[in-house]
Amino acid sequence: MKPCYKREDGSMREDTITRAIEEIDITKPAPTQEPMRQYYYIRKCRQIVQEESKKLGRPLTACTKTFGCQMNARDSEKIVGILEEIGYKPVEDEKADFIIYNTCTVRENANLKVYGRLGALKKEKKKNPHMKLALCGCMMQEDVVVDKIQKSYSFVDLIFGTHNIFKFAELLYTRMQGDRMVIDIWKDTNEIVEDLPSERKFSFKAGVNVMFGCNNFCTYCIVPYVRGRERSRNPKDILMEIEKLVSDGVVEIMLLGQNVNSYGKDFEEPFSFAKLLQEVEKVEGLKRIRFMTSHPKDLSDELIQVMKNSKKICKHLHLPVQAGSSRLLRIMNRRYTKEQYLDLVAKIKKEIPDISLTTDIMVGFPGETEEDFMETMDVVRKVRYDAAYTFIYSKRTGTPAATMPDQVPEDIVKERFQRLLAEIQSISAELTKEDEGTIQEVLVEEINGQDESLVTGRLSNNLLVHFKGDTSLIGELVKVKLVECKGFYYMGELA
């Protein structure tokens, strides 16, 4: 059994990070090295929060809302972990004492959601002057966004971006000591700070960052501008984190990166993603390994063989195609053709016949013709994806595509989108039907949201299964008979 450590508030936690925070001497100047510097500011913030809690006669509450991808979700776990160490009680209610929006800017709609939330909070902020509001994440890396918030939402207390999330405690302390909005946006960084507090959403599965940033600069995508250039974590740090997670009950790991296939290319001595997967596989007690996202141009034969021979890597590969037209792919700067993508898929299916393939497909990229769209439909029919994340092109200021001519009319885009969606749904239903009646292993994740007599779990291929069960099954790998296919999911029963 791991030793517990007693916090100042009397609670116990099995965490060496908590112990290190407790042992920081805040009577001395702040350390210059990370993460000890942030531990120092966590203690400093904790003093202030404890004083405010005493005055109010209750714990201060904090609500963290996450928009966007799994990278953002992982960042939010760190934010929540820091907040808990400071002394905030996590809640879902946005009438909390402290509200943090971890934002996404991949599509314009994500920005509009945040502005809408901010507008609604203006009255709450007036009613509760002690309430604090912080904004972080990808959206905050855009100058035009920060300018708008300063002008139209001046009641926001703290703004920071994607590169300096590790500084959250220090920035919060700065705001607590003053009465003005604190803004700290970095344009880029090579710094990776390990050993920050983190609070996982699930006890049995976890996301682990293997790298940050992207070097691809697809012409429609703002990610390289807001997440910066690729930087890989040290494999030893990754493996230590996974070993710790497994010792804490985690059975499934999701390895995260904007393009995991580029992992290790920035090291002096290259260390491939395939090699990293082999090392992760050796971790005793780990049952399942997932990863995303894979760029087709970087998916190696080595990786295919590692997946083929693995006993732990899930039979699921997310392989974004974006479009089926080689002409559009060239303009998108995807660096592969339709033919190259289909050849890659054929190679994967030959080596791993039971692989589940999912993808991202964009409709309405500037200049897309009916002929281009039919090329995309042809790829969908030839690959036969188990599922696809389909979306309409969203113009992002600062990307090359935003100024391209021949923006496709909205009515045409919507009509094509519906045709694409119908085709994908039809194929997906056919593929899902093939496994009806089989017995498969399911990782039980939660009580079903619509029927409390059911639990919901996930197959190796990432499809959902609902079946009779209770909370005792959550986090367990169990055998389930897939009784009935429902298109994108199954109804099942314990085998």
Low-confidence stretches: 1-14
Strand fraction equals 15-25%
- Overall mean confidence score, pLDDT: 93
Distance between the termini: 33 Å
CA radius of gyration is: 24 Å
User: Number of helical segments?
Assistant: 14
Name the structural class: alpha/beta
Q: How does the overall form come out from the CA principal axes?
A: globular
What's the story with the biggest beta sheet?
A: 6 strands, parallel
- The helix content is 25-40%
Total E-strand runs = 21
The spatial strand order of the largest sheet comes to: 4-3-5-6-7-8
Q: Which structural traits does this protein have?
A:
alpha/beta, six-stranded parallel beta sheet, globular, single chain, 21 strands, 36% helix, disordered N terminus, 20% strand, 14 helices, 495 residues, five-stranded mixed beta barrel
Word description of this protein:
This protein has 495 residues and is α/β, with parallel strands linked by helices. 36% of the residues lie in helices and 20% in strands. It has helices spanning 16-22, 36-56, 70-86, 108-127, 143-152, 168-176, 223-227, 235-247, 273-281, 301-309, 326-332, 338-351, 370-383, 410-434, and strands at 5-6, 12-13, 61-66, 89-90, 98-103, 132-137, 158-160, 182-184, 205-209, 211-212, 231-232, 252-256, 288-292, 316-318, 356-363, 387-392, 439-447, 454-458, 464-468, 477-485, 489-494. The chain has a 6-stranded parallel β-sheet with strand order 4-3-5-6-7-8, sandwiched between helices. Strand 3, helix 3 (70-86) and strand 4 (89-90) form a beta-alpha-beta unit. Helix 2 (36-56) packs across helix 3 (70-86), helix 12 (338-351) packs parallel to helix 13 (370-383) and helix 13 (370-383) packs parallel to helix 14 (410-434). The radius of gyration is 24 Å and the shape is globular.
